[in-house]
Design goal:
The complex is a heterodimer of chains A (471) and B (128).
Chain A (H helix, E strand, L loop, with lengths): L3 H25 L2 H38 L4 E3 L2 E3 L1 H53 L3 E5 L4 E5 L1 H7 L9 E2 H4 L3 H13 L5 E10 L2 E11 L9 E7 L1 H36 L6 H33 L6 E5 H18 L3 E5 L6 E5 H17 L6 E9 L4 E8 L20 H4 L8 H12 L3 E7 L3 E9 L3
Parallel strand pairs in A: 10-12
Antiparallel strand pairs in A: 1-2, 3-4, 3-8, 4-5, 6-7, 7-8, 9-11, 12-13, 13-15, 14-15
Chain B lengths: L4 E5 L3 H13 L3 E5 L2 H11 L3 E5 L7 H11 L5 E5 L7 H6 L2 E6 L4 H20 L1
Parallel strand pairs in B: 1-2, 1-3, 3-4, 4-5
Helix pairs in contact in B: 1-5, 2-3
The chains are: A alpha+beta (471), B alpha/beta (128).
Amino acid sequence: MPRPRTFYTLSLIALGCGAACAAAGAGGFDSPALRWGGDALLLGGGLGAAATIVLVRRGLGQLADAARKPGALVLAGRTVSPDTGFQFLTHATDALLESAERSVADARLQAKELEIQLKVATAERQHAEAILYSISDAVLVTDPFDELVLANESAARTFEFDLAKSGRSPVDQVLRDPKMIALIREMRQSHSRSGRRIVEHEVHGEAGSRTFKVTLSSISDGDVPGGVVAVLHDVTREREVSEMKNDFVSMVSHELRTPLASIRAYVEMLIDGEADDVKTQREFYEVIQNEANRLGRLIDNILNISRIESGLVRINKQPQSLSVIVKDAMEVIAPQARQKQIRISEELTPVFYQTLADRDMLYQAVLNLLSNAVKYTPVGGAITVEILVDEPQKKVLTRISDTGVGIPPKDLPFVFDKFYRSEANSRMAPGTGLGLSLVKHIVESVHQGRMFVESHVGKGSCFGFELVLCE
Amino acid sequence: MNGKTILVADDESHILNVVSLKLRNAGFRVLTAADGQEALEIALQERPDLLITDYHMPLLSGLELCQRLRQECSAIPAIMLTARGYNLEPEDTARSGILKMVSKPFSPRQLLATVQEVLGETAVVAAG
């Protein structure tokens, strides 16, 4: 059996270790250390109490031995009477018990405090992690040894690594992006006091390239080099929108300047008397009128698209028969078709099949499609307009097919883009490059329908749209 | 008639017609082309004294046309019309023989003045 003093020594060591672990745990935000500290304090308190009991038992044993023996009692090197000895031992025992009780109470109190600290620290950590995981920006945190200590799901998605397996791994083993690794290392080595650097970085992933604004922050503590926090904000869409805006402005400028150039030149020629005969003068006036109309249509189209896109246009949806709308549009387009000896045939449905639509907008869409069919169909060609009803699916399909020049496959995905004009077709007929974009907006944004196109070069094109049939 | 031949290339027929008429009325011999490819073929065959070309044309842009002419024969002096409102790199224009850029909309009167200036200048350079 170990000696009581050994118990005391053990208990003191346990108390010390416990307190140290707990302190380290609380300071270092490390929950296992904090738990061990609490356990060790309780162990220390328990060992102390056990040692006290052993000592008291031993003292009482000695006293009993002395009582059984006649004569004086030697206690603590001094000869004392048995009464004095008893009193001494009683006081000593009381003091010892009191001290042991205090130690146990203190240990319990400290353990309780550590438990609270542990809960607070755990809650704070969970809170911090929740914030980290909820932000859409990618976050990477590295330590002074370039090991990844923290990352969020967005970072794992961006750099395509397994978040569960990435903890405490060297950053160059987790990321397969040499430039990003270099940026983190440079930031750590720079010991930047200002602590911040913002760079633009392109990440090439399986889904394509994306552009990020990377904010690198140094987390060095004084002169001691520390880790790096990298926050990556995806600016791909912003860059695309900015480029699209520039392209749009450039294209609008081009499209507006072209008819304006004709108007200005012909007006000046008339003023300067360069059109000397009446016939030429009349031709000039007609050019001016046509180009002014073109300019007006262009501005209308731009405004209509802009209004639909921004949701400013007033939409008046009523049950409408597509057959009636198509008939109206065909009547308007008929003179142009006759001029080119283009035959228009129709396969329409009874008027009781209706769709919930804004009549004027849908009429505009059908007219644009018919106008294109006439424009891109050579003299003597044919146009077919069909309306097909799918009653079980509650859909109505409108198809406008022509025997025109067709659209090359490379141009097909872009025909609904603003100002996009197939190079081959732009020679065939003038246009703003906005008509089909407007049709798509009317069908898909305003009527939640679906637009489609099929085309074969030299054979013709078929443009159409699908809308929901009214109950 | 001053004997000089000018090739005008533009896919906008109204511009092509009005520029041609202005130049013809001023005594020039005028050839026309509706795209870059046609302009290249005419230029190689006719070797005009000056080329007036739109920048944005089907098949071959105005800049590509000037560059091809530079490769195939010595560059023909050119005036570039553009509705885009941007300027080309000075190195590109110099290498391709483009002497002036004219923004659309333009005044036919001023275009004629530019033509006369360019032809006068090139004549001096050629003589020197």
